[in-house]
Amino acid sequence: MTATALVVDDEVDLCRLMQITLTKMGIKSDIAYTLTQAQTYWETNQYDFCLTDLNLPDGSGLELVKQISSSSSSPVAVITAHGSMDLAIEALKLGAFDFVNKPLELPRLRQLVENALKVIRQDMNAAPNGRTPEQQLLDSRLIGDSAVMHSLKNTVLKLARSQAPVFLSGASGTGKEVVARLIHDLSPRRDGSFVPVNCGAIPSELMESEFFGHKKGSFTGAVADKQGLFQQASGGTLFLDEVADLPLAMQVKLLRAIQEKNVRAIGDTKEMPVDIRILSATHKDLNQLVQLGTFRQDLYYRINVIELKLPALNTRYDDIPALAQHFLRLIAEEWQLDMPSQLTDDAYQRLQQHDFAGNVRELRNILERAITLAETTVIDVNHLGLPEINISSQTPDLHYLNHALDNNILNTNATVTNKNSTDDTPVNTAKSEQVNNIQSKAGTVASQTHTTVNLHPYRTNNQPYPSAIQASNPIGFGKDIKQNDSVVKKTAHHSEDDLVQSPLTQADSAALPAKGLEAYLQEQEKRLIITALKQTDWNKTQAADLLGTTFRSLRYRMKKLDIDED
Ligand SMILES: Nc1ncnc2c1ncn2[C@@H]1O[C@H](COP(=O)(O)OP(=O)(O)OP(=O)(O)O)[C@@H](O)[C@H]1O
Question: Do 149 and 56 fall into the same domain?
């Protein structure tokens, strides 16, 4: 089917040029020279998309953008005078799909039209029952059926069609990266790369080279040409995670690259055009950082065209059962277990009473640990490692009670429990055999999984889960492992007392360190890290948890202290 477009501009020559370009791409088009003419054409004919200038003799193209995006799902793109970035941003906020600057560059125009065609084709292929493949993908990866998640999912679908920069805000572990990936995978850019980068993890002296690349010999150590993240993401999406951690000097360079859509590698003489969509995220209050002067207002304005706030898990307790089941399935798959574990009624209830400071990531972490510690595939409250609450005698928290009654959670959980209530069913006998494999696989496979998930060396999905750490006394966790000695190999040479006794207490009664304070502290640090690693069969995530630190920090310290996994 031939696509049709409405082109709106008062410059006759430019209209002709655009019409010729569209015709060459197999698109039929009509031309309108004024806003009124465009509005009449749009109402009386059916067009698949619209390309409009913003400066029209009888009004602003923004009027047309508003009209089209509020009444149809057809993509509308705007043409802006060079340098009028504010208007372009305004148009994107009103629902424009993309913008192109004057003087018009034909490759850029073709790219924009190609993306519009992909969105149109996507709409035409929508399933007749209304559940598009896009919605199915969204539901399978962004778990949650609460009202707030419903509206989030609708927004994600809309944002995926647009090229507007999106800023994802929300606390750590709420799913910002999940949403960023979905926006990319549901967008016309899905065939390009999704390049996630943790801005806080790149050493500042390497930043420019990481973002823009370098030419061989441009500085000591540049032994070969290197492609930057912008070039890697060209045709796709660049996800700037922890964007608040960008140093000010880099913010300037980034702003320029985003605005100009051109980058120059270090040591190169020419600029290279890049076609990227920018998504960014941070758990910090970026607005406040702008007030404090540590984040540039112009960059904030540029990346925060549309803000999407991810809800905290504590505001959607109804989603916990579905999320838990999703993770139990996922973990079973990743750890190659025969079947997913199941939670008892009490365990579901306890989870729904927990204060998830670490959000969804914390929930997953709790379940990973519970699977490792449970003797069968049935996970009960004691495996969750959360502070004790007497569920049966205690009046449930008001929020839990409301959610449970409103959403029938208690019934759902009862079904799960009934399935698992007798330990000697054939299913459970098979499960207990499976458990023997779980804990040995858990450590190694879990750590492998964590490494392969990270697409970029500066990206890490592993952050601390404050409340889980608080709840599970590190030493208590070590003891649990010890009790299950037959299933989890414990190889630590040091006693637990070594862990309990602080270096300072030891120093009190010892002579002063012969090699000086630094060397002594490093030795202690190394010893504690190795102890934790051995206790967890070299699972860095769990070891970090034991030490009350982050995965990233542990990895950094291991490198610094020369602790080699081999
Ligand atoms: N709605 C959800 N459905 C399924 N999994 C989710 C959801 N939200 C988060 N997760 C999972 O929780 C973990 C943390 O998510 P993610 O890394 O996207 O959080 P984040 O907000 O980017 O965290 P941070 O700010 O620390 O980078 C991941 O394992 C992710 O797959």
Answer: no
pLDDT at 43: 93
Domain harbouring 377, CATH code: 1.10.8.60
Pick from 82-91, 329-338, 543-552 the range whose average pLDDT is largest: 329-338
Number of compact structural domains in the chain? 3
Please compute the mean of the pLDDT values over residues 307-313 and round it to a whole number.
95
Is 177 close to ligand 1, i.e. is its CB under 6 Å away? yes
Q: 119 and 140, same structural domain?
A: no
Look at the block and give the residue holding tokens 């000697």.
424
Q: Is residue 271 part of a domain?
A: yes
| Phi, psi dihedral angles at 296 (to 5 degrees) | -70, 135
Give pLDDT tens digits for 499-531. Answer: 333 334 444 445 677 766 667 777 888 888 998
Could you report the per-residue pLDDT of 65-93, keeping only the tens digit for each?
999 998 888 999 999 886 678 888 999 99
E strands within 89-178? Answer: 98-101, 166-169
The protein residue whose alpha carbon is closest to atom 12 in ligand 1 is 361
We report the CATH number of the domain holding residue 227 as: 3.40.50.300
Average pLDDT over residues 434-455: 41
Domain end: 429, 450, 471, which one?
450
Work out whether strand 342-343 and strand 213-214 pair parallel, antiparallel, or are unpaired: unpaired
Closest-CA residue, ligand 1 atom 13, reads 361
| Percent of the chain whose pLDDT exceeds 70 | 75
Q: Is the CB of 17 under 6 A from ligand 1?
A: no
Does the C-beta of 364 come closer than 6 Å to ligand 1? yes
Indicate whether 325 belongs to any domain. yes
Whether residues 291 and 333 share a domain: the answer is: no
Q: Which two tokens stand for residue 317?
A: 């307790």
User: Which ligand 1 atom sits nearest the alpha carbon of residue 178?
Assistant: 18
Could you tell me the residue range of the domain that residue 28 belongs to?
3-124
Is the domain of 164 the same as that of 305?
Answer: yes
**Which amino acid type is present at position 521?**
L
- Residue pair 157/131 in contact by the 8 Å Cβ criterion: no
Q: To test the ligand 1 pocket, which listed residue (280, 323, 361, 368) has its Cβ within 8 A of the most ligand atoms? A: 361
Instruction: Output the CA 179–ligand 1 centroid distance in Å.
Output: 8
Average the pLDDT over 246-255 and give the result: 94
In a shared domain, residues 213 and 168 = yes
Q: Which of 124, 144, 174 is the last residue of a domain?
A: 124
Distance CA 506, CA 450 (A): 35
Say which residue the tokens 């608040």 belong to.
244
| Spacing, Cα 99 to ligand 1 middle (Å) | 31
Does some domain include residue 324?
yes
Mean pLDDT within 427-454: 42
- Cβ-in-10-Å burial (0-12, 13-18, 19+) of 507 comes to middle
Give me the half-sphere count of Cα atoms (radius 13 Å) on the Cβ side of residue 298: 12
Q: Is 360 in the pocket of ligand 1 (CB under 6 A)?
A: yes
State the distance from the centre of ligand 1 to the C-alpha of 289, rounded, in angstroms.
Answer: 24
